[in-house]
Automatic annotation (TrEMBL):
Record carries keyword Repeat: yes
Domain of life per record: Eukaryota
Residues in HEAT repeats: 207-245
Span list, region Disordered: 1-45
GO biological process, one term: regulation of microtubule polymerization or depolymerization
Ranges for domain TOG: 74-315
PROSITE patterns: HEAT_REPEAT
Keyword annotations: Repeat
Coiled coil stretches, renumbered: none
GO CC entries: cytoplasmic microtubule
UniProt protein name: TOG domain-containing protein
Species: Mikania micrantha (bitter vine)
Entry-linked Pfam families: CEP104-like_TOG
GO molecular function, one term: microtubule binding
Length: 397
């Protein structure tokens, strides 16, 4: 039975709405059954999950007739979360609520963690590690409503605390990678958004070592999600940061993912390699032997750098990808370089040598008379350049 506090905090629908089946509500009877594939899309559109709670009147205990009360748990976006009414009271019951077995109360408490992260993040500093541990536990909850709310909580924690959560990140990261690889689309999408927040708000120098072990995970989906996180995180280092972190190490990582099983992983590797190539060209590696007679420093080209740091086949694959990608980008820029002001008008293009318009027909001779309709239908086109049926018949010229 759910706690009175949880029921009081949730919206109770009137009985008239409870008796009608509506496409805007997902009505589920206890014991709760996870949504099927047919109603997952509905939950995505409405961002709600509902529960039917039977209440038995004291005078009618034991009878089959029960009154159904529908409570609705909403997935509220971060920018629509209101501030806490009582910060001190909410803080005192926060850890107990996160450890509750009442899933509705747990969802409400997770939303309170989000409110703390947005409006009062200093209040959670002392208990942040405990909060993250309980959020990880909620991520493992088999109930989709709890899981998704915990994922949204993780995203807000990343934004609020950034590098401060790095020591507690490992169990949180593995759960988000797992959830982002699930078949449940609305859970998967929420986890992907949380991972994007992770790469945006946590320093890449701290995050990349945490991600690297998952690039070798047995699960190809987890490898792909980790590869996408690496591809998003590395550009935040900048050219100098990439050089300091180790461009040779990052190139080896990208070359490995280039031959991975899933296309998402390979695409992330291609994007990363292009970023690394641009960074390398800004700060290339000097050759060990410098020409003392030359004023210009001798450097390795990108091709020489790849060949010296990668196995032969891997280097060839990397160079093939980067050369094709760069050529495609340059070609695309060239095609789109003409502004609307400089772009020639269609008439001028037509008058150029691209298309030669047909010459105008010569004037008709004076000895032409208009035929009747029957004559027109009877005259077939036989190589005449002025039309399939002529309206004129030449006579007596």
């Amino acid at each position: 039975m759910m706690s009175e506090t949880a029921l009081r905090d949730l919206n109770l629908l009137p009985k008239s709405e409870r008796t009608n089946e509506s496409s805007s509500k997902d009505t589920l009877a206890k014991p709760y059954v996870e949504p099927t594939d047919q109603n997952v899309g509905e939950k995505q559109r409405k961002n709600t999950v509902s529960l039917v709670e039977p209440h038995v009147n004291g005078n009618e205990a034991g009878h089959s007739g029960t009154e159904l009360v529908v409570v609705e748990v909403e997935y509220i976006e971060s920018d629509k979360l209101d501030d806490l009414e009582n910060v001190d009271k909410s803080l005192k019951v926060l850890l107990d609520g996160l450890g509750s077995k009442d899933w509705v109360l747990l969802c409400e408490t997770l939303n309170n963690v989000r409110r703390f992260s947005i409006y009062h993040k200093e209040a959670l500093q002392d208990i942040l590690d405990n909060v993250i541990s309980l959020v990880v536990k909620a991520l493992k909850n088999p109930r989709s409503a709890v899981c998704k709310t915990a994922i949204m909580t993780s995203a807000d924690i990343f934004k609020a605390y950034g590098d401060k959560i790095i020591d507690s990140l490992d169990p949180l990261l593995v759960q988000l990678l797992l959830k982002s690889s699930q078949d449940k689309r609305f859970v998967c999408e929420a986890a992907e958004k949380a991972l994007i927040n992770l790469t945006v708000w946590v320093s890449p120098v701290l995050l990349l070592p945490k991600l690297q072990p998952y690039l070798k995970n047995r699960n190809p989906r987890i490898r792909a999600k980790a590869s996408m996180c690496v591809s998003r995180s590395v550009p935040r280092l900048g050219a100098e940061g990439i050089k300091d972190y180790g461009i040779d190490k990052l190139t080896q990582i990208a070359s490995t993912q280039l031959s991975d099983q899933l296309p998402e992983s390979r695409e992330a590797a291609r994007s990363l390699l292009l970023e690394l190539q641009i960074a390398y060209e800004k700060s290339p590696v000097l050759t060990p032997e410098q020409d003392t007679l030359s004023d210009q420093p001798q450097v390795y080209s990108w091709e020489q750098f790849c060949e010296s740091n990668l196995p032969k086949l891997s280097a060839q694959a990397v160079l093939r990808v980067t050369s094709i990608t760069r050529e495609g980008l340059v070609s695309g820029l060239d095609k789109g370089a003409v502004s609307d002001e400089k772009r020639p008008e269609p008439e001028k293009i037509f008058k150029s040598n691209l298309i030669t318009p047909p010459p105008p027909p010569p004037p008709l001779p004076a000895s032409i008379i208009i035929t009747t309709a029957m004559d027109e239908a009877a005259i077939a086109y036989k190589g005449d350049e002025f039309g399939p049926l002529r309206k004129y018949l030449l006579i007596g010229s």
